[in-house]
Amino acid sequence: MPPSLRAWLGLVAALGALAVVVLGALYADESKPGTLDARIWAAVEGVGPPWRRVALAIDFLGEPLGAALLGVAAVAGCLLLRRPRAAVLVVAGPALTVGTTTLLKSLVGRTIHDGSLSYPSGHTAFLAAMTLAVALVATGRLGLGRAAGTSLVLTAALVAGAAMGWAQVALGAHYPTDTLGGWCTALAVVPATAWLVDRTADRLLDRTADAGRRERR
C-alpha cells in the first residue's frame, strides 16, 4: 500500500467494518427485504433481455471461473511489472474478503428465496476487492499522491461494487443492502490485507538483510 494512503484507507476500513456490523445487526435472521430494499428492488429487479445479458455477464465475474480468470490476469500483470507484493495482494485481498463474507453469512443468518444465506453479497465483495487491490497497485505504480490516489482507489471500488451490486439485485440474487454490505466488507478487508502484506514483506527483507550482514562478518 502506498504510504501516503495508509491513514486515509485505515479510516475507510474502519468505517467499512462499522457499516458491515450495523447492517448485519439490522438484518440478522431476516428473510424478507427491508423498506429500502423493497423500493430499490421494485425498480431494478426483472430487467429486460438486453440488460439481463449485461447483468449475467457481470455476475460471471463473481463466479468461480470468472473470478479465477480475473485473478490470473491480475497476478500475471503484477509479475510482469515485477511487483511480487502486488501479486500477493491481488490474491490475498479478494480471497480474505470472500472468506469474510462466507463467515458473516453464517453469523448474520439473513436468507433470500429458498433459504439461501444472502448477507453480505460475496459476488459484490469479490469484484470490489479485486478492483480495489488493482487500484492500489496502480496508485503505487503511478506514484500518485494522497488525494489523487485515494480518489482513484475509492472510485474504482465504487464503480465495481455498484456494477456487481446492480447485477445481483437485477437478477434477484440479493437484496440491495446485501450488496452494500459486500462492498463495505471489501473496503474493510483489502486495506488491512495490504498493510499485512507490506508488514510481512518488510520483516522478511529485514531478516534477509540481517542474515547477509552476519555472513559477511
Brief descriptors of the model:
mainly alpha, 217 residues, 2 strands, 8 helices, two-stranded antiparallel ribbon
Please give the structural blueprint:
Layout: H1 6-26, H2 35-44, H3 49-60, H4 64-80, H5 84-108, E1 111-112, E2 116-117, H6 122-142, H7 146-170, H8 176-216
Antiparallel strand pairs: 1-2
Describe the model:
The protein is an all-alpha fold and about 220 residues long. It has eight helices and two strands; from the N terminus they run αααααββααα. A two-stranded antiparallel sheet has the order 1-2. It is globular. The model has no long low-confidence stretch (mean pLDDT about 90).
Q: Structural class, please?
A: mainly alpha
Q: What is the count of helical runs? A: 8
**Quick one: how many beta strands?**
2
Which strands sit side by side, in order, in the main sheet?
A: 1-2
Taken from the alpha-carbon principal axes, the silhouette is globular
Rounded mean pLDDT score: 90
Percent range of helical residues: over 70%
What sequence of helices (H) and strands (E) makes up the elements? HHHHHEEHHH
Rg over alpha carbons? 19 Å
Distance N to C terminus: 34 Å
Main sheet, how many strands, which sense, barrel? 2 strands, antiparallel
Low-confidence regions = none
Query: Which strand-content bin applies to the residues?
Result: under 5%
